[in-house]
Amino acid sequence: MDFETYKTSLAQDAPPEKLSFAAQALWWEAKGDWHQAHQCAQKQPDAEGAWAHAYLHRVEGDLRNASGWYRRADKAPSDAPLREEWETIVRALLG
User: Fold this and answer.
1) Beta carbons within 10 angstroms of residue 90's beta carbon
2) Whose CA, among 36, 39, 43, 61, lies 20 to 30 Å from 14?
């Protein structure tokens, strides 16, 4: 799936099938459902899941928790605007 298709899918009620849990997490966050996003991120125990998880805690304002998840993802904590980081992560997850 390309980024534009992913963005367009935000008009739907559920994320497209076959997305990773990390990509679903960012989809739900963009829809304004942080709790559903967090549940998805917790289901993906690898570095991609940790990166999405870090972003979600940054959105929440819990920078200490986010820092731990960035470490697990082997990523430097971001200070980019949230929407910019969201796009960066989504594009990376989609390949």
Assistant:
1) 19
2) 61
What is the distance between the alpha carbons of residues 75 and 8, in angstroms, rounded to a whole number? Answer: 28
Average pLDDT over the chain reads 96
Angle formed by the axes of helices 47-60 and 82-94, nearest 10°: 160
Digit-coded pLDDT (tens) for 30-75: 999 999 999 999 999 999 999 999 999 999 999 999 999 999 999 9
Between the two ends of the chain, the Cα-to-Cα distance in Å is: 8
Encode pLDDT of 69-95 as tens digits: 999 999 999 999 999 999 999 999 999
Q: Are 77 and 54 in contact (CB under 8 A)?
A: yes
Q: What is the pLDDT of residue 90?
A: 98
Given the candidates 1.25.40, 1.10.3470, 1.10.10, 1.10.8, the CATH classification of the domain at 20-94 is 1.25.40
